[in-house]
């Protein structure tokens, strides 16, 4: 008999170890049990239409159309903190190629992903800081700084993975295109608050040294605990200026709006944009960094790729106008605080830590 090595990380075993102090355990859902309908897995979330913005307006020759499109982006960033963009200029073949490479990468056996230094040890799985069932994430990810993508010679032990060389081309092109789009959208949001893009960039540089791509994989999840339904990714806000997400057609992403979870329904032609903590701070809460999560799916695995627009660690994140709601902080300081909180209490506190 040939034993096929699993490509799925040992999530259930790891979480069960944490649960030894709890009066619960991870239980496997019987394979023969009838599968719930798709909608039931949305766990009571509302279906509301997330704004869809056609970015063609930004390049229109008509000044009024350009202004209207910019206003829509700003409105969605304030009211929702999330929106979808269509006609975003990113080639659909590139999106498909990226997905194909991503799937192949995650298909590698777990032992290889976790021990071969693939993509400079950028592989993460589960929730390393989890201390209770509500911290468990049923997912794995490659968390890749752009420096490593644009200068692949910095990738250690590339020779170990032949598969990587071909893959790099797609990653480089994808990261470059996402960076352009993210900067275009950030520029619109900066100018909407009466600030000059060039002046912003002089103070806060978002370059390849700190931006990163995160390739996410949510394996099919046939377990739960008595206490908690399993998350694919636990509720969080992003610690960046903005994020651009390309999700597949499975669904499961939800965002919080007025204390109610709302499902983001996949749309083939759209990318999802969300505001991160740094834009919320810089804009004095005009733009909202909202909590979002991914629910685990017992029927299907899911893939997504997120691009995070981040400044250099020494960039001072002040506010665009005084008086500011948050005290000044550098991005490096913000990140250290998030890491410290996650280690000590199992989750991030984020912006409330920096209120004046
Ligand atoms: O996979 C998703 O839909 C969301 C991913 C996400 O929120 C993240 O990587 O920060
Ligand atoms: Fe996120």
TrEMBL record:
Belongs to the iron/ascorbate-dependent oxidoreductase family. It comes from the Eukaryota. GO terms for molecular function: 2-oxoglutarate-dependent dioxygenase activity; metal ion binding. This is Fe2OG dioxygenase domain-containing protein. Keywords: Iron, Metal-binding, Oxidoreductase. Residues 207-311 form the Fe2OG dioxygenase domain. Pfam families: 2OG-FeII_Oxy, DIOX_N. SUPFAM superfamilies: Clavaminate synthase-like. PROSITE patterns: FE2OG_OXY. One of its GO terms (biological process) is coumarin biosynthetic process.
